[in-house]
Specification:
single chain, 404 residues, alpha/beta, Rossmann fold, 9-stranded mixed β-sheet, 6-stranded mixed β-sheet, 13 helices, 15 strands, globular
Length: 404
């Protein structure tokens, strides 16, 4: 006969075991739900400057990316999109460290890259981890050659400067001078412009290189005037363009018949709105204008202004289209984030953007897009870069030149 104590002990033990089994089952079920939920979340980590000298462009990239998610929802192909933005302060080493942390700790499936120096620093990390990385801003041609997992949704510097040179020579310009900031973007833009201007039958009289920090434009404008060009090509940071344009007029270069021309970013839409008459008549070649005449763009400009209080610009549309590219790739892969499948899905991808029709070159993974020649004009009392000529489906001319 089993003692009462023993029977009670066994019954209690039995109840405890049953309760433990129930608890264990519930725990396993919870873990399975968590695991399934984690598998259904796709994290996108964007590394951009939100503080420091490039904070304004970081803000615009982030705003464009967030607006796309807001407009199109945070679920695509059954996957919930989680956007993570990290501030590199414009420092390449910070960007590299943040990219590593996003990959290892946050386990992102996609990265977004901002300015060129940081994107270059991220390249080895991206390649080793095999993380598809959308270039949202950087325009240096060589970038997509640094990692097979880079895909560009922004622009290349050569796309704009090549078109500017081609348009100038086709419209009578035969003698030109360049005023170029002495840094990598300026150097690349000037080389492409110079080659295309010469190919068009023109003469490049000089390429004047100015310091990035606190430049005094006066002596360079005087040197340009002294050699009597019919056009001056300017490639400088957008925030310096108003000062240069004012000095251009003050020194009488505009009255002497010299045209001020350049890539689209010297009349950046967000800055342009507050420039008054300073940039009137300036002709540029760019891939995006807030004045682009399409319903899609009008809706984008209105939504961006409502969300930020700013005029949409070429920087913001890079963030917007970068997220669009990620969504389209996930739709094509059925939600798979396998890096090689994603990159293959992105190659040759095409869509309608606020900037117009765009596509990804399957050979170079660069964006192919229209480049528009625009003239700054007043509309309802405000200056806008108004498009008047279109060069369709422009590829990166630097890479195109190496295949010919």
């Amino acid at each position: 006969m089993i003692p009462i104590f023993d029977r009670r002990s066994r019954r209690a033990a039995s109840h405890i075991g049953f309760a433990s089994a129930l608890a264990l089952g519930a725990l396993l079920a919870t873990l399975n739900v968590v695991a399934a939920s984690a598998a259904d979340v796709v994290k996108v980590g964007i590394v951009i400057p939100m503080t420091g000298p490039f904070a304004a462009i970081g803000r615009e990239v982030a705003a464009g990316a967030k607006l796309f998610v807001e407009q199109h929802g945070d679920v695509v192909a059954g996957k919930k999109i989680e956007l993570i933005i990290r501030d590199d302060g414009g420092v390449p080493d910070n960007g590299k460290r943040l990219a590593q942390d996003l990959i290892v700790t946050d386990k992102v499936s996609f990265l977004g890259a901002g300015i060129t120096p940081t994107a270059l620093a991220m390249a080895p990390v991206v390649s080793e981890a095999k993380v598809p990385t959308v270039v949202l801003l950087a325009g240096t041609s060589i970038l997509t050659e640094r990692s097979p997992y880079f895909v560009r949704a922004s622009f290349t510097l050569g796309q704009q400067s090549a078109v500017m040179a081609d348009w100038a020579t086709r419209n009578g310009s035969r003698r030109t001078v360049g005023i170029i900031t002495d840094w990598t973007p300026g150097t690349e833009a000037s080389k492409v412009y110079e080659q295309h201007f010469k190919d068009g039958g023109g003469q490049v009289l000089d390429m004047l290189r100015i310091p990035l920090a606190s430049p005094d434009f006066a002596p360079f404008l005087q040197r340009a005037r002294d050699v009597s060009p019919d056009s001056v090509f300017v490639s400088i940071p957008a925030f310096q363009s108003v000062a240069l344009a004012r000095q251009f007029s003050e020194r009488g270069l505009d009255k002497s018949g010299i045209k001020l021309i350049g890539p689209g970013d010297i009349v950046d839409d967000d800055d342009l709105a507050g420039t008054g008459d300073a940039l009137d008549g300036v002709v540029t070649a760019g891939f995006y204008s807030a004045a682009h005449p399409s319903k899609l763009n009008a809706d984008y400009v209105a939504a961006y202004a409502k969300a930020t209080g700013h005029r949409a610009n070429h920087v913001s549309v890079g963030g917007y289209d970068g997220m669009n590219l990620i969504y389209l790739a996930l739709q094509k892969t059925g939600g798979s984030t396998d890096p090689d499948r994603v990159i293959e899905a992105m190659k040759g991808m095409s869509w309608e953007s606020p900037r117009g029709p765009v596509a990804i070159d399957p050979r170079t993974r660069d964006i192919v897009q229209n480049i528009y020649v625009r003239k700054v004009e007043k509309r309802n009392g405000e200056p806008w870069a108004v498009e008047f000529a279109t060069f369709e489906a422009v590829k990166d001319p630097v890479k195109e030149a190496t295949t010919q």
